[in-house]
Amino acid sequence: MKNNFNQRKKAVLSKLDKSSIGKWDEKIISLCDKLNNSENFYTTSSCSGRIALMIEQDKKAKNLFLKVWHNKISFKELKNSLIEIKIKKLIKFKFEPAILHLACKDLNFASEFLEKAKHLGWKRSGILTYKKNIILELNSTEKLEFPILNNEKILVDDLFLKLIIELSNKKFEKTWEKIDKLKESI
How high does pLDDT run on average in the chain? Predict the structure, then answer.
């Protein structure tokens, strides 16, 4: 089993980045590096949090994301992006917190790490298994989602846009703080 874990780790970590941004999020890379240098874990995917403007749709599909930010944004950035969207559909604003998928050598390592993460605020987390893989999914809890544009018409006023920017930027800070605390706890 140990050799299989090490073989899978080597194979996964040698693959090209398939993320939508094409590179590691700077705010989470040092945590991922620390985990990937451990003999007991390796990361399979990660995100330090993001703000997205996306087409409202029940099923996942390509090209749903119209604009994505992985850092704090300004009122002007959001407002200009909303004005630039020329799609006759319902568009939603979405803040998604940090997420980390971590392959674990065995269930004991996964359980211990899960307890540590939950203690540090990663409340929406759990252990997933798939055949021989034990995957730990860590989710932070900061989230925000609502319709913002319909048929090219902004549904909220500028005061509300400024408020959601302030809230989202604070949520970024909170989720990044959790990433740092988790890194320090390893």
Answer: 91
C-alpha to C-alpha distances, 122 to 46, 75, 180, nearest whole angstrom? 14, 29, 12
Supply the pTM of this predicted model.
0.88
How many other C-beta atoms are found inside a 10 Å radius of the C-beta of residue 65? 13
- DSSP for 33-56, written as a single string: HHHHTSSSEEEEEEE--EEEEEE-
Q: What is the CA radius of gyration of the chain?
A: 18
Q: Evaluate the CA torsion angle 10, 15, 20, 21 in order and state its sign.
A: positive
The domain limits of the chain are 2-185
Lowest mean pLDDT among 20-29, 114-123, 153-162: 20-29
What architecture is domain 2-185?
Answer: 2-Layer Sandwich (3.30)
Q: Give per-residue pLDDT as tens, 63-86.
A: 899 999 999 999 999 999 999 999
Asked if residues 38 and 186 have their Cβ atoms less than 8 Å apart, the reply is yes
